[in-house]
Amino acid sequence: MEDAHSHLPHIGLRNLKSAFSAALCAGIYYLIDRNPTFACIGAVYGMGNDMGHSWQQGGNRLIGTIIGGFLGMGLFWCYLLLAPAGESRALLIPLTFVGVVVLICLAQMFRWPTAVQPGSVVLCIILFNTPTDTYVSYALNRMVDTGVGVLMSMLINYLFPRERLVRWIAWWKKRANAMVPGFTPTHDRPD
Questions:
Q1: Do residues 25 and 39 touch, judged by C-beta distance below 8 A?
Q2: Per its UniProt record, what InterPro entries does this chain match (predicted)?
Q3: Model-level pTM?
């Protein structure tokens, strides 16, 4: 028989660490008066169950962003050579085709095929949503911001591994039970 509560959402350790990592990025970026969007996205992508999973998840995002960013800069530069005033936006269609094919090949070459999706996102943002005079700085900033977010999640995962948090939670439950006899948390799943 299935537990009635097994399908209910719960707030687990990974959930809390993801939120903490993204919030730290947002706070730091607001302090330096910079938009935290891509750092927060990198932080959420970079949080895994453990350091290995964080490296895989964050690596997907970071490697994809780097490949897509540099490729997007190169293709946008080609676009500006062919249409200096940016008057022929339709030229971006075949450049997108070429860019996605090259991106997939590069991701395979670097043995990181899961970087294709985040790389494609950055590639398309650069091609279709970046002003012509800021495409290089925009791409470079996205790479740096994503890296900051991924590193923040890896740092949080390193400083607060699941095993340590589970021990702390057990300790706090024991203390709470000592202070309030019969204390039983409604939810014991640590994930």
A1: yes
A2: ArAE_1
A3: 0.76
User: Looking at residue 86, what DSSP letter applies?
Assistant: S
Phi-psi region of 48 (alpha: psi -120 to 50; beta: other; left: phi over 0): beta
User: Total structural domains in the chain?
Assistant: 1
Q: Is 27 within the bounds of a domain?
A: yes
Task: Evaluate whether residue 117 is within a structural domain.
Answer: yes
Q: Report which secondary-structure segment, H or E, holds 68.
A: helix 51-82
Write out pLDDT tens, residues 110-135: 888 889 999 999 999 999 988 888 88
Tokens describing residue 15: 């959930």
* Secondary structure of residue 58 in the 3-state scheme: helix
Look at residue 180 and tell me if it is in a domain: no
Q: Cα dist. 66→11, 20, 110, 112, 175 in Å?
A: 32, 25, 12, 12, 47
Please identify every stretch of the chain with a pLDDT value under 70, giving residue numbers as ranges.
1-6, 8, 180-191
What is d(CA 188, CA 191) in angstroms, rounded to the nearest whole number? 9
C-beta of residue 85 within 8 angstroms of C-beta of residue 132? no
Here the tokens at position 146 are: 């994503």
